[in-house]
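Protein details
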Amino acid sequence: MIQFNELSKSQKAFDFIVKLIASGCFTGYSKFASGTVGCFFIGIPTYLLIYYLSHCCLFIEPNLCYALFVTMLTIIGIWVSGRAEIIFAQRDSGKIVIDEVVGYLFTMFALPLNILFIVLGFILFRVIDVWKPLGIRSLQKLPGGWGVMFDDCAGGVVTCIILQIINISGVRF
């Protein structure tokens, strides 16, 4: 006999997929600095994948293609992280790292592909994500997945601006 308080198999499978995406393939379950772990092990490889895919688009300019990929992941992240908050029964749970992954993708927009920008982008983004300057912290007050995602997206934009200034200033690595 089915109990009403038990989740169906399809609901358990759905929740598993939400946890998988929200936690960055479970890197969010790291006991130490889950956001940093998720950003490093999922954010950087995702950036490299999207960078190469966007440069393979035959009919779309690479930066536009990259922006479309990141927009799609942002929309998915808003929904998934909102649902994950319900599953984890915790607001902006440390297990949710899709926001750090997408924030890092914002960081790397329209930058040249080289190891030093990848590393500098990672370090600066993590510092800004933890520090949350310029009113970014207030974005966490937005409801559900919006609050989870938008502070990291804003942190990524700020970091991207800093890196773009470094890039156009002629500093070469």
About this structure: Residues 62-88 form the longest helix (27 residues). The chain has one domain: 33-168. The helical segments are 9-22, 34-54, 62-88, 98-107, 115-131, 144-168. The mean pLDDT is 94.
